[in-house]
Amino acid sequence: MKTIMDMLKSTIFKRFLLRRDEVLYCCKLLLTFEKIIKSDMESYNLEVEKLRIDIAEYNTKILGRMILKKDLNKIMRIEHFAQNDKIEVHNLNEFIPDDFLVENNC
Fold it and tell me: Taking the domains of the chain in order of start, what are their residue ranges?
């Protein structure tokens, strides 16, 4: 949950650049994620849960403050492997520009 001070800071002092340490931490999270994906791990373990929590905190504390509230509400409703069939969800394709896959050779 955002505190009132966090909301004021993000509204009044909106900043759109990541600090160096924030970028480096994001890279660390992504590299750890890649390592886990490439491993032959057969079960969900504490390392994976810790990474999931770290990524969620990074999203909330660092990236979340840079996203407009209306967009953040949409992002929080992106479908995650049919985890909840009781809420209205959005497909990730709604957020990806049409030329993204072409430019990145995906």
Answer: 1-66, 69-106
